Amino acid sequence: MSLTLWILLLLTIVYIPLYFWVRSSPKAAKYGLVKYGPCIMIKTQLGTKLMDRWCVYTRFWRFFGILSQIISFVLMVGIIYILAVGVMNLASSLNADGIGIEYALAIPGLNPLLPLWYGILGLFVAMVLHELAHGMQTKSNNMRVSSTGLLYGVVPLGAFVEPNEEDVKKSSRRVKLDLYSAGISTNLIVAIIAFTLFAVVMLGGISSPYGDSAAIYSTTSDSPASDTGLPSGVIIEYVNGEEYDINASTYSWDPGESVEVKYIAKDGEYIKNIQWGVYIESISDSSPASGVLTAKTFLISITSNGDETLLWNQTQFTSYMKTTSPGETVTIACMTEDGTVTTHNLTLGTKGSVGYVGIVTSTSGMYFTTPNTMLDEARNPIYGADSLTSYATSLIGYIAGPFTGFSPMPESVQWWYDVPLDGVFWIFVSILYWIFWLNIMLGVSNAIPAYPFDGGFIFLGWLDKLLEKMGMKDMQKRMALADTITSYLSIVMIMLYVLVIVAVVL
Asked: CA 48 to CA 206: how far, in whole Å?
């Protein structure tokens, strides 16, 4: 059993008697502890004075309500798109190894994605501002806030602001929509502000003395690079005495040959020998390569229609595949680590409009970039995008950056850049990045059109308005129908959400 599961088991053992005490003891309410389904609400009055001071600007909060509904609609469409893509890719996700159940837990320090202190700070900012926005809209519309506090269930699940239930029931549909959408929009606005500070202001003002030099941002385990001891976060200077150009089409050595690599690390220059070529990391099941090619070998050339193309690096292989067609038969030459060369005939499958082999490759276990490209990608979420689809894909890829160590840059590459107050600079970049990332996560997840998320109540209000526009004037029947439809939609959306999460983590 993993450490994460042991910690969760211990927290559960502690939580169960606490929950039953809160459920059965009248003394619990004196301490602000109230059961809420399987959770415990810790009720306080923190923040209510701040709400009283700021809620008087009613015109601003009315405008903010309109803006919040627009933002909520955009994010709702976004999360539905993400879930749809996740479901369409479900088969490949289920066939792949999961990333681990700990990734499904929003617990800084236990979730490998969330660093302890940056995660705690980012979650605190995201949850507090989300709930504060609900409170502001509640107060500005002359409704009372019964309590504020923390929702706890084995682990802290979030902060809350509890509007007076009777006041909310009596309020208009417009007020309810403003109330429920306020937290979502606040999270997005805070995320945009944090992004502007770290990406535009801070990263926008730095540069690298290594510019367009070939640089390794990541290496894989059990590969020629890791076996040789060649680390990530280094600048490649020379290969076999030749200045290495990441964009060259040919080199003076043969693909798969053992070469001498001279590189610069943070603490000096080093030389290592490594077998260099397009390394097959893994092979996808039920792909054209399955049963034909072998993982942990080098792909050195591809021959099509009598024309042989030599391949020195992973970028060249990717570029070559863009020129192929589904159904095309090619001859692939591979080399083992002991230098044995074998050839294989293979009929390409389909991946969009181009051919598909079904292999994951790298350059000898190394993944290359340049310091300038790394910087551009860190400060521009749509870097390289040139169409509406690629804009969406790039945005999702940017937000998924922590899964591959980009938050917004791996720590191993930060020395590539000239920055003021080196340590302090990157600490503030990390703080702002995690505030950005966790606000995005909280805002988008709350936009899911399903109970008990804010998006469920927003969808209910919009559907009620639509039914009214369609001529359904009886408010009680209209609300009953809208609630029924929203409830069924909630079941579907939650099932899809859980299905996608389970497919990814398990």
From this structure: 42
